[in-house]
Structure formats: structure tokens, C-alpha cells
Amino acid sequence: MTSLPDPRTDAEIPGFLTALELPGLADIHIHFLPARMQQKVWAVFDNAAEVDGYDWPITYRFDVATRLEILRGFRIPAIPALTYPHKPGMAAWLNDWNAAFAAEHADVIHCGTLYPEEGVGDYVRQALDAGARLFKMHVQVGDFAPDSPLLAPAWEALAAAEVPVVIHVGSGPRPGRFTGPEHMRQVLADFPQLHAVIAHMGMPEYHAFADLAEDFEHVHLDTTMFATDFTNRMAPFDERYRSRLAELRERVVLGSDFPTIPYPYAHQLEALARLRLGEEWLRAVLWDNGARLLGLPARSS
Q1: pLDDT per residue over 193-221, tens digit each?
Q2: Who's near 28: CB < 8 A, 6+ residues apart?
């Protein structure tokens, strides 16, 4: 990897991808939200210093059109628009918004979400029938157990459809009542065909969620904020985990958390490159694995 410079600015991303002979980035963890909801989410991060003790500047606080153009400039051909509810009654409405947003933009992935409530199986199946091909769930924000019996019909539908679900279930940056690997392990035991993507590599329970990826063939780990300077201060990883990532090459997929990240997008790529796990590992993580999950074309070998 010494011949491949790490990307340090966003302007260097296209050249970095060209040097790796990649067609683009298959980022599975990008957010777009309804306008009022987006402002409320950003307000939470604006107050991070008061709540969590550290500043969280938002690097890409722009309007929708500008954010989409920035992502296209990063050579992201299929742009997720992940949403998540924090209370009952929101998920079906968000799924309608997601369908409309994807219909407005040809390169936006039709996404969906879910919450443990009566009827969740019905609206998840409706979203799947309408073309949704990526879902999101946030256990800490929603304050629910992913193995709630209410969610069983939704997990069954998603497992049967082989549609991936990005699940924030690790205990970082703030633990919740139901975060951690135990509830998720039960879900996977009940629905082993579920294509679960563990957000943020399960931070800070890195090893416990790597165990899930080893134990269940459809579990992936997304790199969102992993190994960045910002995250390493609060949730560092050890050398043994870095070695495990080499073995889990086919299960690690690029995620970023754009737009609400406290550094340039390029820093996520730099952080992964400086793990020094090899160019083939980077190709798998930055494109191959995400492309497989999202149904994008395989790169030419």
C-alpha cells in the first residue's frame, strides 16, 4: 500500500478510486430525511458538547440538491436515503417519504424503515413490494429491543426478500437499554437468512459483533466512522481486531453517516486505508461487498 497515497481531502477521492481501479464507492450508510426531521437531528448534534462532552460539527450542512451533487462527485452511483423513527406511527409515513424521494432522484436507493408496533409486517411488505431495497433501524434512538415479538413479521419478510437492513445496535456513541450484541444474536438465531448490516462495526463492542459476522453467514459490518481520529478517541480498537478484519474481508462494507459527520468524507477512506490491510481488502470494502448487497454491477477484474 505504500504506492497508494491516502486520500486526505475530498478532492483526492476520485484519484484514489482511479488508483484502486474502482468504478466508485458503494456506501451503504448515508442519510436523507424530511426537511423538518433533518433540522431536528442536526440540532441534537449541535448540542453534543452539552450532552456527551464533545463537539460534533456537521461538515455537510447543505440543502438536498447540494448534498446529492457532493455525493455524485465522490462517485457514489447509488445513494442511500436512510431514515429511522423514534416512536410508533412514524415508520409508515417515513416509508412513503422514502418512496417519493427515490422517485424524484434516479440515483437514490429506495429505502425503508421499521419500528416494533402493530402492523409493522404489513407496511414492511408494502415497502418491499413497492421496490424498497435497503432498510434502516436505530435501536438506541428508538429505545426498543430488536428481538421484540412485534418485529417478527418484519424480520421474516426482510429475510425472505434478502433485502439488507442497516442496524445501529452497538452501544456507541451512547448506550441504550437494548444496545449490544445479545438481542441481535437472538434475532439472527430466529432469522438466520436476515441480511443484517451492523452499523459502526458495532462500536464499541467490536469483537462481539465480529463474532456475529463469523457465526451468521449474512451478517456484515459497516465502517461508519470506524478508525477515524474522531472515533478513536472514544472507541479505540485493538490490534487483534485489526487482524480479524483481514479475515472478515467479505463481510465489511463501506458506511459513512454522511452528511452528519464531524470531518471530511475523505477521512473515512483515509482511516480505512491506513489500516494497511491491502488494496484487495480496500476494493472489497469500498465496492465489492456493498455492490453485492445493493445489487450493483461487479467491478471488472
Answers
A1: 999 999 999 999 999 999 999 999 999 99
A2: 80, 134, 164, 166, 197, 222, 253, 254, 255, 290, 293, 294
